[in-house]
Amino acid sequence: MADAPVAVVTGGNRGIGLEVCRQLASLGHVVVLTARDAGRARSAAERLGVEHHRLDVTDDASVAALAEHLTGRHGRVDVLVNNAAIHYDTWQRASSADLGVVREAMETNFYGPWRVVLGLLPLLRAARGPRVVNVSSEAGSLASMGGGTPAYGTSKAALNALTLMLAAELPAMKVNAVCPGWVATDMGGAGGRPVAQGAASVVWAATLPEDGPTGGFFRDGARVPW
């Protein structure tokens, strides 16, 4: 297992994040499942037989503690999946939004992934051909954006912009955004496609070959308009 890729997944205790952990583990990755609640992280990880660690993506000290743990245990991170997200705010409109909700979404959905990348960057650089996957949404696509879900949509649009910047600045890595589609999770609600299908879209980007793309926005391996 010493040569197995080390994969860190944020928001890994349920939904798409949990299924991404399961699929990566089945492919032979050493998976570190993280969640804001330490007990939920432990419980979910024990069900899958993977590692776990508490991580609040909105807290610098929490990210630093994870980085310290990973440095001592593995010395590198081969795959980072920025999955943690909040506030799919279908009840809001941009013209009447509660900006407090928007700020909360930005802190987790945009600043959170940025903070985690910054904190784990030395570990990613220590890996051979690392992959960073920012779990985004077509709700953040300017090409198809309309009204509604202002906190979620703007935070994912910002995450897409960050993806492009990081991909340009970190050519030794593959940095991509992935829309898993409308998935039947606690956030997505009933009626969406199976969780395994949405997670597979993320896992595709996490396991790209050396000649795979970087700086793209994808769903099921196909490009999504920015």
Detailed description of the structure:
There is one protein chain. With 226 residues, the chain is α/β, with parallel strands linked by helices. The chain is built from 6 helices and 8 strands, in the order E-H-E-H-E-H-E-H-E-H-E-H-E-E. It has an 8-stranded mixed sheet with strand order 3-2-1-4-5-6-7-8, with helices on both faces. Helix 4 links the parallel strand 4 and strand 5. The longest helix is centred in the middle third of the chain and has 27 residues.
Question: How large, in whole angstroms, is the Cα Rg?
Answer: 16 Å
Helix content: 40-55%
Going across the biggest sheet, name each strand in turn. Answer: 3-2-1-4-5-6-7-8
List the secondary-structure elements in sequence, H or E. EHEHEHEHEHEHEE
Q: What is the count of DSSP helices, taking H or I runs of 4+ residues? A: 6
Quaternary state reads single chain
Features:
about 230 residues; alpha/beta; 8-stranded mixed sheet; 8 strands; about 40% helix
Task: Briefly say what this structure is.
With 226 residues, the protein is an alpha/beta fold.
What's the helix and strand layout?
Elements: E1 6-9, H1 15-26, E2 30-35, H2 38-48, E3 51-54, H3 60-73, E4 79-82, H4 99-125, E5 131-135, H5 150-169, E6 174-178, H6 195-206, E7 217-219, E8 222-223
Parallel strand pairs: 1-2, 1-4, 2-3, 4-5, 5-6, 6-7
Antiparallel strand pairs: 7-8
Helix pairs in contact: 1-6, 3-4, 4-5
